[in-house]
Design a protein that fits this description.
This protein has 404 residues and is an alpha/beta fold. The protein contains 16 helices and eight strands. It binds a DNA duplex (33 and 33 nucleotides) through helix 4, helix 15, strand 7 and strand 8.
DNA sequence: AGGTATTCACATGAAACTATTCTCTGAGTTAGG
DNA sequence: TAACTCAGAGAATAGTTTCATGTGAATACCTGT
């Protein structure tokens, strides 16, 4: 491309008035100045956390609700409010928000405590210290001055799933060791049955109060979308029925507002890229397709080599029949390993990898029994057939082999 | 025919092992006074 | 003698392997009619 052409391209981009006036409003990290349709939950939480303002330790709190039901937004909103009030009343309050799902940050016991320490502005090694040492550092740090500490653990269920529930027990026990300060926990969980298979000791010490966030219905999502769209887009760029359609999509997925917002944002980006001026219904369909496709490709791309090789083997079998079984995949997998010069893993491990791919939605797997002929996974692709070429090209690039 | 027992080909679980990354410690080494 | 280097020990963590046990139903094998 010549320089002139390139320049023209950029100029076109610039002259093209964007339909966004403030795109960040649609990003998931955005905290709006009012939270709609969560009045009841806010009141409950405020009541539970209220004692903070009298420098008393409130009960530990658990918040349940599926994704996109406003848990995180609500708690972030309330904590900034609490911070301001505490400053007014001269209560020494510190609120720490941690997302336990973030890999390499807060997804194990050690890292969680280390991250808490970092929030106090002290740095600790990311590895090399024994766990109780890190706890001791934390104790000293917190107990140094009298302070009320509110720790918000988002997606705790992930943490417990990965590292067991003693973590929570240890954390709650910190309070008994402290003389000056006090710590209060707020756990946020996607799964409603999260505490069910937890150790009863942990349960009783942590789960003192709980608030449930029900899914939004279509009307409520419409309200939210309308409000955000007003801030995010220039007036007059929104086509007839677009918000309603977005809301309908999201409501179908257990009222996930985050999804609806993402849909709207991606649709807007499509409109922008095409140089069109209004967002129409067809863009929503395109956006949905794009989100779906992108997320799957992204997941595949970030898989370890071994998983990719297993998937590659599975794709090789696809041409022959629709029903694919574990043994065949393993065989093809070994062949690919030989081709790519990869040390083949045991069947045991591949079994787990296939289960993981199933969890990720890349494939669909069911365990079936063929009677005398054994028990195995019956697998099929988890994405539409028209995506196969894209997946194949990613895999051959990652693995350095070519499909035939 | 109807009922029971086998058997296949993995699934699923638990524990142990491996490799990597990182800190800390103390012995040995070096350079300057 | 202080500063520096470097190997070794110990931790956390992710990814595997090894060993052990579980599983659902098609088939083989009885049983009594």
């Amino acid at each position: 491309m010549s320089q002139k052409e390139l320049k023209k391209y950029f100029e076109k981009f610039l002259s093209n008035q964007s339909i966004f006036s403030n795109k960040s409003v649609l990003q998931s990290s955005y905290v709006p100045e009012t939270v709609l349709h969560r009045e009841e939950q806010m009141a409950q939480i405020a009541e539970i956390l209220g004692p903070i303002l009298r420098t008393e330790k409130p009960s530990n709190l658990f918040i349940y609700g599926k994704t996109g039901t406003g848990k995180t937004v609500t708690i972030k909103y309330l904590s900034s409010m609490l911070k301001n009030l505490a400053k007014e009343k001269e209560v020494s309050l510190k609120i720490i928000y941690l997302n336990c799902k973030l890999k390499k940050i807060a997804d194990t016991e050690y890292r969680l405590v280390a991250q808490l320490i970092r929030q106090f502005g002290k740095s600790v090694p990311s590895t090399g210290l024994p766990t109780d040492e890190i706890y001791n550092i934390f104790y000293r740090l917190v107990d140094h001055t009298k302070i009320l500490l509110l720790i918000v653990l988002d997606e705790v269920d992930q943490l417990v799933k990965k590292a067991g529930d003693e973590i929570l027990y240890n954390l709650t026990r910190i309070n008994t060791e402290l003389t000056n300060s006090q710590i209060c926990f707020v756990g946020i969980s996607n799964s409603l049955v999260f505490t069910e298979n937890m150790d009863p000791r942990v349960k009783s010490s942590l789960n003192e109060e709980e608030v449930v966030f029900p899914p939004y219905n279509a009307i409520q999502i419409q309200d939210i979308l309308r409000k955000r769209a007003k801030d995010a887009f220039h007036p007059g760029t929104m086509g007839q029925g677009v918000l309603e359609k977005c809301a309908a999509y999201a409501a179908r997925e257990h009222g996930d507002a985050r999804r609806a917002l993402e849909l709207l944002r991606v649709a807007g980006e499509i409109v922008e890229r095409r140089g069109e001026s209004t967002l129409a219904l067809t863009h929503i369909d395109l956006a949905e397709e794009k989100i779906e496709c992108d997320s799957i490709l992204e997941v595949i791309k970030t898989q370890p080599k071994q998983s990719q090789a297993a998937l590659y083997g599975l794709l090789l079998l696809l041409n022959n029949s629709n029903k694919i079984f574990t043994g065949d995949v393993y065989e093809k997998y070994r062949e690919t390993c030989a081709k790519v010069d990869l040390r083949p893993l045991t069947q045991r491990r591949i079994s787990d990898i296939l289960a993981e791919l199933d969890m990720l939605g890349i494939i669909n797997a069911n365990v079936i029994s063929k009677g005398r002929h054994g028990r195995m996974r019956e697998m099929s692709l988890g994405f539409p057939a028209n995506m196969i070429p894209k997946v194949e090209s990613i895999l051959s690039r990652e693995l350095g082999v070519s499909f035939k």
